[in-house]
Structures are given as C-alpha cells and as structure tokens.
Design a protein that fits this description.
alpha/beta, Rossmann fold, Arc Repressor Mutant, subunit A, 2 domains, 6-stranded mixed beta sheet, 5-stranded parallel beta sheet, 16 helices, about 40% helix, about 15% strand, globular
Length: about 425
C-alpha cells in the first residue's frame, strides 16, 4: 500500500458519525484507499458488479433489508457502497437508515461520476454527509527525480498532513515520464512498456463504458469526435463555436459535453481572473483534462516520451496547472485562474490562496531571464496589496532570483 496524501484527513473524518461520500475519476485509487482504511468487517456492496447493480436497481429495498440484518454491536458497522452513482435510489435508502439510527451503521458511498446523480436529482444527504474527493497523484505522493533541494520554496506548499508518516511513496519519476504518462496510481506503478496500453484501456473502458452505461450521450460518434478535439485543445481557452463547427454539433451540445467531463471528474475549468483594472481581458475559461496520460489517449495519441519531446512547452504548462488544481482541491480553499489580454499578453496561472495572489509563468527553458517574467511583473504592479511575489516554473537546475519579486523555480520544486 503506497502512501496517499488524503489518507490522514480521510481517516480523521471517517470516525465522525456522518455518511461519507467519496468522489473521483476511475483509477484514482478510491476503492483501494477505502478498503485499506476501513476495518476488515466492513460490508461491501460493489455496484461495479453487474449482478449486484441489477439486483439493487430493481429492488433498492434489498439494501435496507441487508443492512438491518447485520448484527448490532458497540461500534458502528461500516458499510461501503462502491460506484454508488449507478443506483441513485440507494442514497434515499441510506438516508432512511441513517435517520433511523445514526450510530448503528457508518455508511461510505464511493462514486466516479456525479452526472446521473445531478440529472436525476439524487439525494446527496445534505446535513448528514461529508463530501470527499480523490485525485491522481500529486508531486508530494509521487516524488520527483532528482529530489529537490531543501531550501526551495513552492508558490503553493503541499506538505504531508501533520501526523502522517509517508513511509511508502510512489516511484520517483523525472519530468518527461510525467508529461507522457500522467499520474494515475496504476499507471505510475506499472512497467513502462505497459503504460500506453493501460491508458488506452482507461480511455475506452472508463469514458466509453461509463457514458454508454448511463445513457448520457445519444450521438456516440459526435461525442468521440468532440472528446478527441477537446483533449487536443486541453489547456487552451474554450472556443465553443470552433468546436461546434469542427465536430458538427450545436454549441449547447458542446457545452453539455464539457459539463459531462466535469461531472465525471476527468476535466476542470480554469476561470479568467476578472478582478483587474485592465479593460481588454478575455473572460472565457480554459479547460484542462485531469491527467496528461489520459489526455494523450483521449486525443488519439500514443503516450511516450517522444510525444513529449515533439512539443513539450504546452504539456509542461498543463502539468503545472493540474498539479496546482489538485493541491487547491485538497486544501479546500482558494482558486486557480489565468489572465490573458486580447492582444495576447498572458499570465499562465494565478493562485489565490490564504488571501494572496501568486502569478505563475511556465517556461520549458533551462535558462529563464527576467524578460520571461514581464507579464508577471505587470500583474504584481496591478495588485500590490494581494500579490507580492511571482514565479517562473521551468527546467532550471536550481532556484534563481531573477528579480526582487520573481523567482525561477525548477519544476521539481513546485
């Protein structure tokens, strides 16, 4: 069992007398983590099993009967429902049981899509539940190679939680493998020769089967064309009109498909930063897929380090954005933004956290200069009260002070 950053916060919260909902994309390690943290006597309902899913879909009351048949004891009996979103009626059943006796059971519901729950208006147990999320590996869990110097300071520090012992971290990787294969736990721990096929299977099994099973898309061919284009455009400003023309579907359908990717936790938006004195700023968000390895296969590409070397700059920018987004989601506060003027001046990312703004530029260069930070310096000048320091994340071998307000930071120090 490898160490996960969220294991300590989740363990602390699982002891609280509420229903626990854990969401995240497939293969992020939700079931593995829960089964490691929950006791051996946990009762498991695995709705990934077609037989179990069909049985409980037809008669949700069987779930209530099975829970009531469990022996009572001094401690709450853990009940885990995996892929709970496939039978939304179970959320009502869980509420009924929980309201009947808050101490007898400790329900943990795990899911990889919120789409069906949202569309059907499923009961997410307000006032009775804690909501948790699990993401692909962060740099903290999946350490860099080479290891960063101790004196490096990150623009968004992400240490292990207090009291957590990181005794078994995932294998250390350099930059190119990260940009090629992403950070899903099963991919990181697999042999290099198997990673492309495993990622291809993820794109087919997770995206195709999940969508087909829930009848979320009527025109499958149009969605496949959309997904390939959306993956290729990952990290770019959303252009609904352009994608609509290329795929041959309406703009409302394009918007619905992007929302579907968010509901399945495989994509996220980076809004444009709007609280600025400038008047010529773009207001349209960017969209990124949650993992670079999945991005490549969804785009119809074969993940490899050769693919990275063909055009590495945009991939490094996406990796930085994904890493910052995962940290902010786990920390539970702040936001991730970007800024671009209509004439092309851009700050790649703006981190809002702890009442401060931190502008970040991403460069593939090993030798950054102060001129690379001109847009970051402009942003700092426009927000003197909130933004005090900016960064260039790049491939320099050690941190460099390029300006009294600008630090060039090696990727492995992020």
């Amino acid at each position: 069992m490898f160490s996960r950053w969220y294991a300590k916060p989740l363990t602390d919260k699982l002891d609280r007398p509420f229903v626990h909902l854990l969401f995240g994309a497939r293969q992020t390690g939700k079931s593995t983590l829960l089964r490691a943290l929950l006791p051996d006597d946990t009762v498991v309902f695995d709705l990934a099993d077609p037989g179990e899913r069909s049985r409980l879909s037809a008669k949700p009351e069987l779930f209530v009967q099975a829970c009531r048949a469990l022996p009572t004891g001094r401690k709450s009996r853990p009940v885990l429902v995996d892929e709970a979103q496939t039978v939304p009626a179970l959320f009502d059943a869980v509420q009924h049981l929980y309201d009947t006796d808050k101490q007898r059971w400790r329900f943990v519901l795990c899911g990889s899509s919120a789409r069906k729950l949202r569309v059907t208006g499923a009961n997410l147990l307000p006032g009775r539940s804690f909501l948790h999320r699990l993401y692909p590996l962060t740099l903290t869990e999946h350490p860099p190679s080479p290891h960063p110097p101790r004196q490096a300071v990150s623009p968004l520090p992400f240490p292990w939680p207090t009291g957590h012992v990181s005794d078994s971290r995932f294998p250390a990787w350099g930059l190119e493998p990260r940009l090629a294969y992403g950070a899903l736990p099963g991919i990181v721990t697999s042999e290099a020769r198997d990673r492309p096929e495993l990622l291809k299977a993820f794109a087919v099994i997770h995206l195709e089967e999940e969508i087909r099973r829930e009848a979320l898309v009527r025109d499958w061919g149009a969605f496949v064309r959309f997904l390939q284009l959306a993956a290729r455009e990952s990290g770019q400003v959303l252009n609904y009109a352009s994608i609509s023309r290329e795929v041959g579907i309406s703009q409302p359908t394009v918007k619905g498909y992007y929302q579907l990717l968010e509901d399945m936790f495989v994509g996220f938006r980076v809004p444009a930063y709007s609280r600025s004195p400038r008047k010529n700023l773009l207001s349209t968000p960017k969209f990124l897929l949650f993992d670079l390895g999945v991005r490549h296969t969804a785009a119809g590409l074969t993940p490899s380090e050769a693919l990275v070397q063909a055009d590495p700059g945009p991939l490094l920018e996406q990796w930085v954005g994904i890493e910052l987004w995962k940290r902010l989601q786990y920390l539970g506060e702040g936001g991730l933004y970007y800024q671009r003027t209509r004439d092309g001046a851009e700050v790649d990312f703006i981190v809002e956290h702890g009442g401060r703004l931190t502008p970040i530029e991403v460069k593939w260069s090993e030798h950054p200069t102060a001129s690379d930070a001109r847009h970051v310096l402009t942003f700092l000048g426009e927000h003197p009260r909130q933004a005090h320091h900016g960064y260039i994340v790049c491939r320099c071998p050690r941190p460099l002070q390029l300006h009294d307000k600008i630090t060039a930071l090696p990727w492995f120090c992020l």
